[in-house]
Amino acid sequence: MSDPLPTASPASTPPQAEDNEDVWSDTPLVPPESVAGRALAIVIAIMTFLAALTAGFALALTDASQQWRGAVGLEMTIQVMPRTGRDIEADAAKAAEIAASFPGVGEARAFSRAQSEELLTPWLGAGLDLSQLPAPRMIVVRRDGNGRLDEIALRATLDAALPNAVLDNHGAWMQRLDDMARVVVGAAIGIFALVLTAMGLAVGFATRGAMAGNREIIEALHYVGAADGFIARQFQLHFLALGLRGGAIGGGAAIALFVALRLLSRRWATSASGEQAEALFGSFALGWGGIATIAALSVGVALLTGFMSRQIVYRSLGDFSRRPK
Amino acid sequence: MVRFENVGLRYGMGAEILRDISFDIGPRTFQFLTGPSGAGKTTLLRLILLALPPTRGLITLFGEDSAQLDKDSITALRRKVGVVFQDFRLLDHLTTYQNVALPLRVQERDEANYRAEVTELLHWVGLGERMHVYPPVLSGGEKQRAAIARALIMRPELLVADEPTGNVDPSLARRLMRLFLELHKSGTSVVIATHDLALMDQFDGARRLVLGDGRLHIYD
Question: By the CB < 8 Å criterion, does A4 face chain B?
Fold first, then answer.
């Protein structure tokens, strides 16, 4: 130690004793493992899981709504009401003929009397003689999917030819379905925002806690000439790693749950109640787009965590080192 | 290098703990800062390091008025000052090597470019065999030498040491003092805060800044 102070000599060779490069590698300046860090990763995992569930259900419902709307929107119904003095069979055939001749109509199929009565079975029960009831006759009109069907002209033509025929394009049902889907998606966005807000608050508290817990490190870094941006970046990296870990766990769990639900719904779809549920809510399948959305959400949560912590640290560092102890 | 003019400091609404402090630290000078425990030596060092704003008065560091400095300027000035803390302030989760290299790392220099320099300095302070161990397993003297090495790695123009011999035996204390003198001879201004009169007596020629009752008395 009594030798002269060594001078910087870039050409000098470092000792060869240390063959393992790991001993030279940079250790994170914010200690990576702590109880608070693990707790935050768990909180982020739970929040990501809830946010992913909300987003996944909203996506599945939107898909189901669109499928349902597409299926229902392709069809219209003409009801021919029984009326005294009119031959309902002839009226039904004529209504089908008028509809089938319209451009944009792919098929117009009149339900037989037996089929029409079968439609009433769920309400009136099976095994009854419905022949005395004035049951209306149904004609299912299916669009051809290519040309535009002029519903107003079709309705006018039917009205002129058959006063007892009513065209129903299911608009009221579709409007209700749209409203319901909008309400559910709006609620999902609200819940999603609440979850993200809660997560943001948790990250904020955790960042401030980490700063308080690492005060001596921050002071030491300041004294050795670290700029605020450098220190903020160290915390950002620390929280980004926690966010990635939490996001991967939460997002992965949500994807696993949706895959399991998809498998279960396939098995359940063979039952009668399953068919009804599928008819109402769709197949409840989250496609690759949904899975990609959840994966992107998980990465987004990690990026948000890192960004927020950086902003909080950067703002807090302003007077951190100049505050009397 | 450092100039204090009528500097005063109080915490909150309390009485001033430092009053009318005026002194200069010129280039290539060596001085002790002394006084009884609690006199404010560490606080005065923190003022020099711009870690505290004075309540009144003017502090000039390397010709810059501290009141006019923005964050980046403060960071740039701190890089010209080496600090040895009384409690070392080594980061326990970094090895001795990583601690000593910290001032270079925070400037985001490539590790390969300073490895040789840091290793050589560690050998010079006698920690060549301890560079890959963590501070909790170092002795007090080894921690002290690691802290000094960290302060020296940037070749500072000013070295500030707070009780650098407070945790070591008299023999090591003398060796550390010789180290500071060596640094002084190489052109660095040195300020050593200590209340060890015997140690100061061994270096009679050094200037003494004595703190007492919140005021500073200078003995050239």
Answer: yes
